[in-house]
## 1
Amino acid sequence: MKRALPLIAGILSGLVVLAAMFFVPQSGGILAMVLNWVIIVAGVALLVAIASLVLTHLRFIARGKKGFLLSLVLVISFLATLMFGLIRGVDDPVFLKWVGAVIRPIETALLGLVALIMMSAAMKIFRERGWSALTVSFGVSAVIFLILGLGFLQNLNIPVLTEVIRLVETLPMIGARGLLIGIGIGLLMMAFRVLFGMEGSGND
Amino acid sequence: MLSALTINDQLALALGILGLLFLLINLLLLKKNQPKHIPESTKQAVEHLLHVSSEEGKRLVVGLGHALTNASFDLAGASGLSLQRALLKRSLFNDHPLQSYSGDGVLACLSRMVVHGAYRGALASELFSGSLSQLSGTSPLAYTASLTNHIPDAANAGLLLAGQMSPVVLLALDQADRCSIPSISAITSLSGQAAGFIGNSVNLMGEDVFNAAGRLDQHKSSLASLSAQDWLRVAISIGLLLGAILKMGGVLP
């Protein structure tokens, strides 16, 4: 009974939300209400997760675990941001400026790094996976779409070429749709398993 | 009431009902109808995971992604949880149990429930530690940066990325490659799958992403859903072919 009640409540609410998604006018704002509940629960869950994260790192510091200095940085920066936000308010321009001044350069640097790593990984793929039909077609298509992305060929205004380019540009969509159908099927089955309580919490 | 739905809604509804029907049939007939076809990539990936988590006795790092409720509500973001549960059951009493990192508050809480449930199910609640399932950043970049930082540890034997992730996750895959840690990516987003492909990892694509857990835990519902997936795939293929023929014949507008 202890496990059955939450399961029944979960199944019923899942079915109601599913039905409300298809019959929007008849559902009378159920979706909006449930969405509000989900936002509140998600907010609380985030708070719980953050509290747990901070506690875990405080334990690391107390035990002097390897890499505890990073935990110290995390806790100090978290507390500083929290205090700053509580005192000045989260919409305060000075608060946003200071937080942004720390986060934006780091994120920009990471994105720059991703671009470099992506290029290096694309080169390494031939060394790691060898010259196969898959890797060669990957390399050739990357070069073709790089050239098409420049827009130079499109500006030549040759009708046959324009038609060929249009055809080539639809190819990734075909592949993507194939993958998306597969993901959709997998997701549908997963949704049913979750909806009917077949996905346990590990204790089954 | 149904006439008010668009053609896409009607199609989605029909596919959903068909999927549910196939799942129920497979649940009822499972003993007679074990899924025979499990893609090779999934099988290889699973065997590899078992090897690193059980035989080497080292820690398996699982990245569960950063998108369950962050930007929008996306169930695909929770796809790593079933894998985490299946792997955790085999590494509960290892020297280094499975360690997971989430980039979403709800995902972190659910992941912790999975870890706690696994220990409780094994009657070993006293071994449960909250640090086995951690939140590690609430934006894609913060999450990836934190995950990347956790990879170069001598006790790590493998990296599994399962869930909704952006291509930025290539940073983590590259780090794993540099540390000679084998990695497996079962990412549900298309751009993430592309990153997994070039990131020198065993890369699961399409519905394979959702199959790995079923192969691992051999749970009745997972196996039934694998069979139902196959049936649904056949039904969709027939539908697409039929649609194309009708369209060419001018029957469909």
## 2
Amino acid sequence: MTRVKGAAHQDLAHDSAVKHVSGAAEYTDDIPEPVGTLHAYLGLSDVAHGRIAAMDLTAVRAAPGVVGVLTAEDIPGANDISPTGSGDDPVFPEKTVEFHGQPLFAVVATSRDAARRAAAQARIEIEPLPHALDPLAAIEAGYPEVTAPLTLQRGAVEDGMAAAPHRIRGRMVIGGQDHMYLEGHIAFAHPGEDEDVVVYSSSQHPSEAQHMVAHVLGVPSHSVVVNVRRMGGGFGGKETQMNLFAAVAAMAAKKWNRPVKIRPDRDQDMVATGKRHDFVADYAVGYDDNGRIQAVDGIFAARCGFSADLSGPVTDRALFHADNAYFYPHVRLTSRPMKTNTVSNTAFRGFGGPQGVIVAERMIEEIAYALGRDPLEIRKANFYRDGGDVTPYHQVVEDNILERIVGELENSADYQARRKAVIAANAKGDIIRRGIALTPVKFGISFTATWYNQAGALVHVYNDGSIMLNHGGTEMGQGLNIKVAQVVADAFQVDIDRIKITRTTTEKVPNTSATAASSGTDLNGMAALDACEQIKSRLVEFACETRGVEPGQVEFLPGRLRIGDEEIGFDALIKQAYMARVHLSAAGFYKTPKIHWDREEGKGRPFYYFAYGAACAEVAVDTLTGEYRVERVDILHDVGKSLNPVIDRGQVEGGFIQGMGWLTTEELWWDEAGRLRTHAPSTYKIPLASDRPRVFNVALADWSQNAERTIKRSKAVGEPPFMLGISVFEALSMAVASVADYRECPRLDAPATPERVLMAIERLKGTA
Amino acid sequence: MTQIRREIRFLLNGEEVRLQTVGARDTLLDFLRIEQRLTGTKEGCAEGDCGACTVLVGRLADGRLRYEPVNACIRFLASVDGCHVVTVEHLRGADGGLHPVQRAMVEHHGSQCGFCTPGIVMALYALWMENPRPGEVEVEIALQGNLCRCTGYAPIVKAAMAVAEHGGPEGDLLLREREVVTERLHAIKDGARVEVERDGDCAVLPADVEDFAAVYEAEPEATVVAGATDVGLWVTKFLRDIGPAVFIGHLDGLRQIEPGSEALRIGAGVSYSDAEDVLMQHFPHLQEYWRRIAGWQVRNAGTIGGNIANGSPIGDTPPVLIALDARLILRKGADRREMPLEEFFIDYGKQDRRPGEFVEAVVLPHAAAGTLHSAWKITKRRDEDISALAAGFAVTVRDGRIAGARIAFGGMAAVPKRAGAAEAALSGAPFEKASFEAAAAALPEDFSPLSDWRASAEYRMRAAQNLFARFWAVHGEGKVAELERGMPA
């Protein structure tokens, strides 16, 4: 054997691909139900804000099949599942309802159907209070911020602004986004002896689910086990939002001493769980005749919902990315994490970053239209560069490769010629207009909560030479498990087939961080490698002792070891090591080096490194209806030295389409009563196969490797490509701008639905 | 005397299933997942929009076995009587390993989280049976009813186009067993009326159209269920009781299309998919519009009669059918009456249908010479979306003047409705741009649309008015005025 199958940097299919296509991959709802399994369902508020005057659940209790109900009074421990300990996130509210769709109770019955029907029987009297649904209304009504705001500043923004030859002020409204994971939330709890309970959860953060269940039950964390084999998609929506379901299932399981499953229907999932934050950004940008930015002043108000959840770090990250790839000599960025009477918004791929990036790109657009220049020129003029490499949070950008990325993409996508062709086509004044845009992304990698940047792994080598791999990360489709397994295969130089990837469980690796912030592979890959290295060093020591050689004479070769002049198969050596009582199991650990962050000062190095990419999108727009098609997209993206290029490419493509969806057809629409009316795929429209560009050239920057010592010099890939979808948004903007000869920035709000596009066209035509 | 059978019988993968206890509201998906533990079929939305629950249903259509992908979540269990239900667990390759469709999906990395995957595999399997070497557009159309949130679809589309490289039809179980399955289904079809129930929730499958007319006349409070693409949601979303329910999807007598010398008669039970070929032959302008009705699974289940009888102001077929001067045939017992389609829609939720009366057929007169047609649907997302507005235009031009205009809109009022003032502005006017501008200007007299999550009132009105400009651009100036999809012929 000359090369192991499945080593690092190879293209390898998702480890569950065969199970996926044959329907054999097990999700939480597919786990066989023991006899006596009960089903829980939530009853929701139908008022956005009000005092609970009376909750009459008599009819619920009396409904067929009902075993009982759970309300705030039945919570044995703390009635709080706030992930940051802010104490503002009850399982069920006791006095005040704070959003339309807030869970008020759970009913437990012998079947899910019975539980659903029973839940509808509740008679709940709520005295309505005035509500504020969006950040502007909340500011107007004097609502508080759900968490402390952040200001990032560098230089002297007033002076810089005053000195700038040109200034533009504007406002951009940026919509939120539902995760629309195909598998909705679910938890399945099995009671055990003493205070024990085992919860199967669809969660990106089993440790948090474990801690929250323990907190709500009032028991130590050691009594609770949370297991996650895989999720049918997460995207951030299962980083904290599973807590409610895990807690309810566990409470019911303990109360009735029977297995209890809770699975909301799609509508309830969308109404009662958090989403991407909507933002209203007010920006002012000062710039010179060449389009060079002199000063930026921005206020980012976010619809956080009724509680803090992760709104603090999310709105922080919006500010961290409000520079995107550009140097601001003088800058002040402030967040306003507003409380609103809506569901509490949460993590979603990019974690506030996309909302920051799109504002940076809007300012570039503003400057370009004001100066009558190609936005790409303005971008290039403002990229971080020598002498202009300090971010608004005072981290120096040391690994910038955007100039090369953008340059290569500009060539491979034939951007200049195509832009000319688009302008020429539009000059004919046809009904169908076109637009093209090339936008970059620079994305900071690391949790800004520095302590989250740690991971553990557990590796066993059994005495037959087979290997069990476990780590703290969760698999939601991103290919984390296969990539970490590749690291292990590479370390031991064995075929990946002999490595069993096992479900994530709080029993094997404790105190894990969420699989989030694109960090899964960076952290868990390193932790797994650490475990492998421990076992390997014991094997080397054993080999040295038994063969009388020096460690330098022991080498792991594909499927075997060379020890001095001897070669021995991996299996044979493992057998020998076992017989000689060598410890063949190890717990690995990793923490990201170099990072630190002082939030009070707004200074530090929150990010270990940056990931880069760029996309060029071309669109066609119908100026009579605002309908559009994305015709062609070219992407060049940086994943460092990829651990598995085909898996990474899948993340780039999927992230791009999801980002495009956020900015085009995915619209969250609340009515005046605060009721979300786009609460299922019939009303909430994520992209379809026919929305993807027919010409879709996606490449990884194969020359890139991480400047930092990350796992095999790879880079994180989950979130950064999401922001490449901004190229579509801006191409639409250009097509719109064509109706007024590109003299005015169309100032599209997001999402750019056909309606917003048409209305912008009409507006520009009116002023043309 | 009609025979009554008190159990439903169908084939599930390789086995015959007989069930005596079946409620009207029992869904196929729950039966598969809960009763049979065939958990490869997933629930993603329970409303026929995501496709994660896609299964194939084989049925005898005029004696010939035909498999179609449908959404198990809104397919009622009782309605699969006499059918062959095929789930992803039944899919195998010649060697017992992966089927070529599955192999292609693995090779092209068509799955990430995997939750939508079985449904996508089943939709692609159905496509492959029809067309083993589909083009990009055919794949897009086949996947209109399947959502994937992870991959962005590119690898799935590539997989679908490459299935043939991963094996031929030789080992395919359904193709191999066609004759056996056909025989088994024939054996199940005993011509009896089927009546089943669960705890008083009762379902009736009439023996034939005559039997249906009799049953419904006798029990006018019953819910008539054809494709269940809307009634399914009454149950899965609103938890409504629909029993007693009369299922009519299996009635061949309602699924006939009769091309006459003066008009096309389409039975009320004809699905969107089954109507497509004949309809496009006569009214080619409907091609793109038709393929933007829902997704493939829903087009296979949903019926034209159901879409009309349902009375929704945003149903896709009424505006375009009204523009074509469609007439409706209603039947109660043995009595029939006929009316112009637009008169059927009285007000929101109210139609001119008497108790026990049902929609039997739609009659479409052939287009008059010199008539220019267009059909447009405007939505937030291009495919598988409910109309913000929809329009059918039929403008007859003689000697440079507009001899007559039938223009109907959906989504603009409480019912699908003709644009009387706009039509009046056109009638008799010269066939020129100014006439269409005048018609557009008259449109606010016809409609005061609502604002909702699909579109604002302003957008609906402006876009509707702009469709007159589009009509003129297309028919008057021969311009490209629409985004092109590249429809296959």
## 3
Amino acid sequence: MNRLEDSFALGLAARGKAARFSPALYITAPLAAILFQVYVPRFFDALSYLELPLLVAIYFALMRRKPASGAFIGCLIGLAQDALSPHPLGMNGISKTLSCYFAASLSLRFDVENPVLRFILGFFFYLFHEFFFWSLSRGLLGRQVDFPIPQSVISAFLNAVVAAALFSFLDRFRRED
Amino acid sequence: MDSFLGRYRNLSVLLLLVVGQLLLLAYQIRSSQDVPLIRIWAVAAVAPMARGLEAARAAATGFFSDYFLLRDVRAENARLKKELGELRLRNHFLSAELASAERARALEQYRARIPSKTLPARVIGAGAGADTRTVFVDRGASDGVQKGMAAITPEGIVGKVIAAYPMAALVQLITAQGAAASVVSQNSRVRGALKGTGAALCLVDHVQNKDPLAPGEWFFTSGHDRVFPRGLPVGQVTLVREGRGGKEVLVEPSALKAPVEEMLIVLDGVHGLIPPPGQPAAEGVSLLPPPPAEGASEPAAPAPNSGALTDADRLAERYRRLTEAQGVQLGVKGRIADFTREPPAAPAAAPKPEPPLP
């Protein structure tokens, strides 16, 4: 148990060590994620459960280890996603802003490079994002929408699996600060 | 204030962003209006990439579609070619079968028409050796085939049986070297001995230079060789020229213009008639006599015994007319008929003029 806690807890050496990325990656990765969400489900409907923009935003928030930056990244990606969706602007923006803020806050305390923790964080933040989005829809827009828990859990699991792989892939473009 | 913002910078940013977006949402909900500018920017950023992706996808799909289509076309082409080959083969086989059936039918009709007793036979192989001009037929001694029997077709004589085995017989074609037949020409009644040369044409020996003979004239068997019954077509003269010992005459055997597949073995030959000059050789074509002239009376019915087909029939008819004219009854003791006298003329309905017997 101690080893597991040690592996999740951020070591002294790693604490405060933020990753840097090429500016191009901050543009291309979210764009590719949004493009994937816009384009691919046309042909593969089963892939519509993938929330790649959220996963990319969470990744940047976790790796930047700065809640303000994370919130800013989440806001921009969420607004861009809203702009291409039928929802009012801000629905995804607020959800992702909060998700990324909390993700960045957690990254200050945990070793977010651990694949298991990444999986857990992906699972948790997906559910958090969906739940918050559902809350905003009901509370602010007054829409009578359901929150199917089993389906959301399954989607969260699948997104967590993809998140673990995606985060490892994006690590290749990381530059240590 | 600065220290407060510095201490709670992250929270401040979060609050700023969330409140800003909440205001944006509130504006949209209150005014029921969109914020087109942000959407335009987003769409303008994403649309070109989506268009590029779509073009790439369409190109890739088209390429693979064409590729698989071409693969299908190639496979279909190969299948159709194979099917065409099979159909051609089948067509060839059926054509050969049809031709064989037609030949067999013609042979059967010819067999029923001629007075000789014949046996149909099919060629099953060629004789061994180069240019032997012999063929094996599927009839042998067990079918009554004997050495020396004639082999004929409706087109003419084919050759002679030179060996009879229990289940097969070897027939020497008339074109083979050493093969011979006694022949007579149709128009000028020139007699000669047809000899095989080993080539496609046969030579007719013993034709005098003074004998009138022209290319195109038909030769028929004369029956003197005691192999081929008289009156069978042999072939047409293709070349006539005068030589030192007589005319050199070349004849193309009519039965061997094409490879022989079926033939008739003459088991019991009966001499026939040589067609009168001007009448084409049988050659498998049956021609009716010319129609009667306008106003002419109906031809009389043929006499009961006028349908003479063989020499024996004709001889019996001749004797019958002779004895009837002389008032002598055959088979009864008494006066003997004078058989040296010519019999009275045959009735008008007599079928054909009888050529003089050789």
